[in-house]
Amino acid sequence: MNTEDKNNIDEAGEVGLVHPQIFEYKKEFRMTHGVLASFQLYYETYGTLNKGGTNAILICHALTGDHHVAGVHEGATRKGWWNHAVGPGKAIDTDNFFVVCSNCLGACQGSTGPTSINPKTQKPYGMLFPDLTIKDMVVAQKLLLDHLKISSLYSVAGGSMGGMQALQWVIEFPKFVQRAMIIAATPQHSAQTIAFNEVGRTSIKGDPKWNNGNYTHDSRPEMGLAVARMMAHITYLSDEAMEEKFGRNQMKLSVEEEEQQFAVESYLHHQGLRFVDRFDANTYLKLTKALDHFDLVGENGLEHTLKNVEAKVMVVGFTTDWLYTPAQNKMIAEALQKLSKHASYLEIDHPHGHDSFLIQSDNFLRLIKLFLKGADQDEIARQEIKKSRYAITRADVKKEADLKVIGDWVKPNEKVLDLGCGRGILLENLRETKNVNGLGVDYDCDKATACISRGVAVYQGDIRKALSMLPDNCFDWVVFSRMVEELPEPGQVILDALRVGRRVAVSFVNHGYWENRLYFSQYGSKINNDVYRENWEKSDPRNHFSIKEFEDFCLAPESQKIPFQIGRKVFHRGNWKTTCKWLPNLRAGLAIYELVRL
Amino acid sequence: MNTEDKNNIDEAGEVGLVHPQIFEYKKEFRMTHGVLASFQLYYETYGTLNKGGTNAILICHALTGDHHVAGVHEGATRKGWWNHAVGPGKAIDTDNFFVVCSNCLGACQGSTGPTSINPKTQKPYGMLFPDLTIKDMVVAQKLLLDHLKISSLYSVAGGSMGGMQALQWVIEFPKFVQRAMIIAATPQHSAQTIAFNEVGRTSIKGDPKWNNGNYTHDSRPEMGLAVARMMAHITYLSDEAMEEKFGRNQMKLSVEEEEQQFAVESYLHHQGLRFVDRFDANTYLKLTKALDHFDLVGENGLEHTLKNVEAKVMVVGFTTDWLYTPAQNKMIAEALQKLSKHASYLEIDHPHGHDSFLIQSDNFLRLIKLFLKGADQDEIARQEIKKSRYAITRADVKKEADLKVIGDWVKPNEKVLDLGCGRGILLENLRETKNVNGLGVDYDCDKATACISRGVAVYQGDIRKALSMLPDNCFDWVVFSRMVEELPEPGQVILDALRVGRRVAVSFVNHGYWENRLYFSQYGSKINNDVYRENWEKSDPRNHFSIKEFEDFCLAPESQKIPFQIGRKVFHRGNWKTTCKWLPNLRAGLAIYELVRL
To answer: How many Cα atoms are found within 13 Å in the side-chain-facing hemisphere of A461?
Structure first.
């Protein structure tokens, strides 16, 4: 190692020099579709396990990844594949956590797989290696963690195939895992993904050198594997990212040749060639089959599969990921949320497609850090809240007026769905004071991230979609804190909330307030104040309504398709502090209603 | 042919039995990258050419398509690939039009290409066939049309590679082509599309049987070609369509074998195998290279390439097409619109991805028919308007109030951009009465289709995006007819309109109308009438404003970044008929303003 490398690994925030280790399991290991007489796993660890064995984080790698997550190997310069995320003071902080990653069972970077020697034949297993499953990988990892004396996992984390392993972990060992970060994953492969994999497999098997899997190191199906990798590589990147990186740039193939090649063509060939050097064709066949057959939905549905999960789960999708789309990631969180588990869904706006999880991104790293910190409310979390683009304004102070009232209505241990939850203040407060189990919904990624920093489960997305996916009667309360005005056809949304929750709390600005009326009758214009902050030309469209209009809606026969009645109601005057008893439609600035399903 | 087939082809609406014909061009033909001593094209025609030779429609086929568009061949049962679109009484009506389609130059279904005999060597050209371009295909087609005594093309039409040919046609022969339908196409391949093609080519060239292109019929690179086709086939379908068609369904490979296969895998293998029977590997290499190198943007930009276009162009994208995306299709229409050409963009909501253009779809076929009919206003067009989900209501009658005023302001031969153009009534009227060249913008596909039926050029999409793509000062008028209320931050949109047009006409409901004020001051609620039709709970959010608020905005220093003044203004009373002179902010129901950039 030269001096520069030495400096490199000693610098602050780096785990430094690391050595792969070998775990040998010398007993028979029953896989889903076969038996191994024994197996081994290559793995690395970073940080120190605490005495209780409770500060471990397991990282699971993707299809073609390996155990080398962080730091550098002796004599090498390449850092681990998640080096920017794992290290002292980094998002996964090795000063606090003991981090483990193993090359998964069936892979080809040191763990037992198709390239290993089959004790029966004394030749490599090749295609005789049992058909793998994601569950096999997870069960083998558990044996490693037992060997390392880890008593429970503080968290498991992984992207892509690693995310599927993380998901399998919380199903297989629900009491062992406290948290799970499932990133850019899916509960099952779509037909399109299976199709892409099958084209790759056809290319490998169509290469004459594949020879039914019985190739030697000197005559491997390199062309078939390279084509498979080239194609798969396209699915890892977004259209936008490729366009930005390559566009239609051309390059000369060589000085002698006149032929031009697009830069993207050259890049793909390079990817294909590099891959065949480090990967094995039979392993690729086995691993892609394991992915295609991974199916947590099956005949009984995802909720059935996830019913025993106890971990706090955060699912993260990337906007431009078209391999494991945001919608597929969301399915996982939604199923857990339907089961009233502590589960969040966040969507990071990142241009790099599926591979975004491998690329350094401040928003993503902050999210990981905040999720691992949980509700610690440390300095970072506070900074987080300050950084949020919704700064504290007079209107934000006003906001707490309705949250106090609604918070008082909720009883201990009830379940609360907060639609338009913002930074999660209500739900955090209810958890701290009343042990309330809550779920927030907000469209904004910054706000959803602030919820994570408060340890509040959050669904980043559209309120109407969140409501429509939730089953009947799965919450005690559904809260709309001053956000009904933003919705198209809001009446239907309120009725849907009454399906999902027994009680619905709606707070709104009473548009019928006397000052508004006076101003409008005089000038014909909307008043301009704390509540109506912008002139029409700078406003987003709104559905303003009054107390009278709200009650008319509640009492209309059409609204009573789901029978409900108005319960408690609280009116505040224009200052949003003093309550107001009589003539509320004229005198109240803020109205808070409880609707109770009958 | 058996009786059933005979019946089949004689049925109403079918072109019946057809025979491919051969056009031989016996002179030297200069291609972009080489010379052919002669060439031939296989082609078919349907319908009859009129005496002037002016009723011909040329159809251009896609990458792996051919000249057999409609009807059946002797002894065959398979109908042409666009049989549902072409025939007597069909969207492309062979009772009125003479329809021509040729297998393109360089293809392998009878036209001269890599499988043809090279007169110099007396062997197939193979890879020695000159590198093809889309332009070569079009120039060869023109020689065929000259041979057929076609004096001008009523229309050219094509999807995918056919759309690129149609686009090349209006560039290459601007005076020869009156109309062009460019469907699911792109002005240039993206890096991602080039990448997919390059993987396919690598698979073919990696097949040892390819032998640098010197294969014989008995030993063709079938495996390489099949893999290329399988992969490409995935890009022709949408994720949703594949999911719906196959999902994760499994099937047994054979009774003997225990192995299961996903249905989508089996389907893809079938596609790959069928393809190698009918297609040639070298041809695939040459055609995909022609596509990758097709680039109408180049160094000087798409507008430069399209500057001489005279045809009326309709570009059609499909929502789920991820190969040639709606955005890529829109680029073509936008460039033409920036040049003030008669060009429309429509987006059909179809689930089948890129291949949607090959699949029977009523909306799409209606659009083709209406575009070809133009402004004929025949029975179908009238039905079209009736069918539109925006039926004639009292509010629609009211609508004409502002259109009459704005129509009067526009002078003959001016250029008008109508934002939120609805069914194109204003622009049709201005074209008929004042020879006005107009472009409508509307988000709604039904309304945009109604514009096509009126012969009005339309951009289906977001008003703000349409405005932002248009260059400064490219219209005399920009019209907002009662739609500003629907926009977020509408002030900025109006200012952008003043950049694009010298004059802006804005009509709006005066929210300060006395009845509104009286009602609101009394009840605190929005009045319910013709203008405010729905209660809050069924409304979309709106930015209502008054005459005073509008004028305040116009006069604000911030608005005057683009200096403009208020020109003419017309106020109508509550009935929207009688004009109103004094106290408009109180007495006017409708306001129409002219803003003039200084």
So the answer is: 26
